[in-house]
Amino acid sequence: MSESTQVSDRTTAREQAPARPAATRWRWAAAAALLAAAVYAPFQLVPFHVFQLTMVLIYAVALLGLNLLVGHAGQISLGHGAFFAVGAYTAAILLDRWDAPYPLTLPAAALVAFVLGLAFGVPAMRLRGLYLALVTLAIAIFLVPLLKRFEEVTGGSMGLSLAKPAPPAWSGLAEDQWLYFLALAVTVAAFLLAASLLRSRVGRALHAVRDDEAAAEVMGVRPAYYKTLAFAWSAMFAGIAGCLYTWVIGFVSPDSFVVNLSITLLAGLVVGGLGSLSGPVLGALFVMFVPSISQDINEAAPGVIFGLLIIAVMYVAPTGLAGLAGRAANSIKKTLRKG
Amino acid sequence: MSELTVHDLHAGYGGAQVLHGVSLTVGEGEICAILGPNGAGKTTLLRALSGMVKGRGSVRLDGAELLGRPPDALARLGVAHVPEGRGTFTQLTVEENLRLGAYVRRSGVEDDLERIYTYFPALKPRLRQAAGSLSGGEQQMLALGRALMLRPRLLLLDEPSLGLAPLVTRELFHIVRAVNEQERTTVVVVEQNAHLALGVAQQAHVLETGRIVLSGTAADIRADEQVAQSYLGYRV
User: Fold this and answer.
1) Across-strand partners of B20?
2) B121 inside domain
């Protein structure tokens, strides 16, 4: 009798504690299914749609970086398009001037963006909220004239045209497919890197600073250090995305990286969902496809439709599309359990 | 574990001076209660001890000067502060909160987690729950557990009873005493509920408008009925 009570006690305890691991399994299953679909897709789609999906991956990497800063460190940046541009131009200049091999441009773009992120992060992280927003916005604003000014290196307003990475013969892939898989490999690596970073002691410290800075500080966490680091990391991911952009488009010009890009990135992240790993993917899909859908709805004013759609999403899902998807999954699970 | 000596401590915010020369000594492994009305400077005193506000004068822990160091440096020296309002990291899980408590250390963290669960068995089934979903009492337990993860030499508790049911508060003070007895941690506790605080403390100081107006053993202060009425606002 007493034995059976003990056993049942133990089962309840077991059921209570590992509620998360079950969710984690689901999440892994979902990620695996998504990856399988991502690998399968380019063989089924026409080149233009493959290109669109490649752009989604590029945006996803940029949003992943921005999410580290905004979603996980609780800061803001209205200037991440600038770091995207820095990555794109680093790759383009290396390819244009020195004929650097493609694989080399990726770490170079990451490094340059990281260092610049650090350089801006140190003073910027003394600011908060609106002040920080303004300073980061200024970075995005002064970048375009700067790129036009140093014409010999950047190609000025005309920009730089480059050859895209050619698919190796052994792969048997078309160019668009090859570019897609390059972008996919980098994206997967970036997500794994970010996920492991966030699960570590560093990730906990970052979240602690976001949730309660003073409490984090009395536990020995230095807020300024983590905020600056988050800024540099997020700049690095934006730079990586920029490098992918150069590979895929084969052309960079100052007008590709106007302030609007920074705003779009932030809007995409907020719509996708802050602080989750699926948010950047959903945000990237939104940023990529919704403008063209808006164009279909009303050719005269796609911007208005795009804006209205953002407002609509935020009204229906204040925690972004990722939050909406999470709630939907939960209610499906509940229904299944009842049934 | 450690002796705290505060001498002529002045502290405040910007131009507003809150503490006007506070001096006190807390012996190794003792619990010291800081009592007094609202606005007396109790919280400011704790904040000055943990580096959250700047102070003048001297604060020594086993002879080492604490004043002038930032909070994270003091955490490394073993000063753990459970702030007013608990400072729960609401979006992190209970376990992540506890692990953050041991942020400045890298070894022995798993053992310390087990130790915390023996003090707070209620936390164990909630480890993977978001800390923000805990009740007020559980959050206060979590805040205390998190501070203990630092293996503090000096533990600062700011109004642990705030907003808690009497029964929960009593349990909390019971744990504070158990921790103090088992780990010989020196404790400074700021508390409105003088009765409870005097129940666990060896000595107490009454603070009023930034000055210590009365010091003594907890028993003395508790026995002094006039003190109770004039400074603590109620009959003991």
Assistant:
1) B10
2) no
| 3-state class (DSSP) for residue A319 | coil
Residue B94 lies in a domain: no
The reply to whether residue A219 touches residue B101, judged by beta carbons under 8 angstroms, is yes
Residues from chain B that touch A216, judged by Cβ atoms under 8 A, are 89, 100
Domain that holds residue B187: 4-84+153-232
Q: For residue A9, is pLDDT > 50?
A: no
Chain A nearest C-alpha distance from B226 (Å): 38
The yes-or-no verdict on residue A215 having pLDDT over 60 is: yes
What pLDDT digit, counting tens, does each position of B97-117 carry? 999 988 888 788 888 888 888
- Looking at the 3D structure of chain B, how many domains does it have? 1
* Separation of alpha carbons A19 and A22, rounded Å: 6
Residue B220, domain member (yes or no): yes
- The distance of A25 to chain B (nearest Cα, Å) reads 15
Q: What is the pTM of this model?
A: 0.81
In a domain, B217, yes or no: yes
Give the minimum alpha-carbon distance from B146 to chain A in angstroms, rounded to a whole number: 9
Neighbouring C-beta atoms of residue A180, cutoff 10 Å: 26
| Chains A, B: CB pairs < 8 Å | 85
Question: In whole angstroms, what is the distance from residue A52 CA to residue A309 CA?
Answer: 20
Q: Which chain A residue shows the shortest CA-CA distance from B131? A: A211
Q: Do B83 and A215 touch (CB under 8 A)?
A: yes
B76 in contact with A at a CB cutoff of 8 Å?
yes
Please count the CA atoms within 13 angstroms of the CA of B169 that sit on its side-chain side. 17
Write out pLDDT tens, residues A110-155: 999 999 999 888 887 778 778 888 888 888 888 888 888 887 777 7
Rounded to 5 degrees, what are φ and ψ at B22?
A: -95, 130
Of residues B179, B233, B177, B231, the one with CA closest to residue B202: B177
B146–A210 CB contact, under 8 Å: no
Query: What value does the mean pLDDT take over residues B203-229?
Result: 83
**Residue B121 scores a pLDDT above 70:** yes
Question: So what's the ipTM on this one?
Answer: 0.81
Query: What CATH number did the domain enclosing B226 receive?
Result: 3.40.50.300
Would you state the pLDDT for residue A116?
92
Judge: B103–A219 Cβ closer than 8 Å, yes or no. Answer: yes
Residue B104 is encoded by which pair of tokens? 């400045």
Interface of B with A in 154-213 (CB under 8 A): none
pLDDT digit string, tens, across residues B64-99: 899 989 999 999 999 999 988 888 888 889 999 999
